[in-house]
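My current task is to audit a protein record that another person submitted. Alongside the sequence sits a line of tokens, each denoting a local backbone shape. Please read both lines and tell me whether the tokens look consistent with the sequence. Do not assume that whoever made the record got everything right. Thanks in advance; the entry in question is below.
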Amino acid sequence: MTTANPSQKIGFIGLGVMGRRMALNLRKAGFDLAVHDFNRDAVAELVAAGAIDAGSIAGAGAADIVITVLPDTPDVEAVVLGEDGLAASMRPGSVLIDMSSISPTATRAMAETLAARGVDMLDAPVSGGYQGAENATLSIMIGGDAAVLERCRPILEAMGKTISHIGGAGAGQVCKVCNQVAVAINIQAVAEAMTLGRKNGVDPDKIRTALLGGFAQSKALDLHGQRVLDSNFVAGFRVTLQRKDLKLALENGSATGTALPVTALVQQLYGVLANTGRADLDNSSLALLMQEMSGIEPESKE
């Protein structure tokens, strides 16, 4: 069981869909938390749960350990490197845990900048969606020094079930983009399989059930396949974020000379969804696009 250290102060920046739930789990575990976000309603919810309103990035940066959960690389860079950012406000000996999904290259550069100021950094992106954030069952992929990870392990265990040390700075982010490549391609495979079944007049529910009992079984088929059956594309993980993560993978692939042809195709398909007004749908909405391209009318669930 995770045990809070009463002398350890935690700053938390980014109270979006994931961050808000993760911060609430830290409070449930008894951690002393100071939070910051532009969404004042989210801050108020955490304050009601016993957190302190940090008031600013620098206010959160005064803590012993600071956690960031932000949408993209420029957001993290602005919070860390900007005027009155964390690089300027965090004390030597403190730790930044960035739990956003961002560029491995940018992560390494920020880790070097912070190290020069005596601040350690862990990159700790997560997988498991908002359900994992809600239930504190996230998979957390860690890049950075192993000794720093052990210092922060109780905090991470309050938010996740699987804590994996991948390697040095940036390795956690590399693991996350690998995860997103595998997830997105799997979702596309499910979308195509269920569309093919419907096009042939076969019940896609029966197809899904049969496939779950064989070698095609996967979480994407289980969870996203059910979303397709229910025509429920309310966002758990938005198209725009999936598209962003695949862009990170492709950028890294280009920089390292790694061939990612299927990733490039799926990233383009997410781009089509985003450019046709569906950026905020769930990433399983690839099935909608496959149905449209196949001449299948969307099913009504009214």
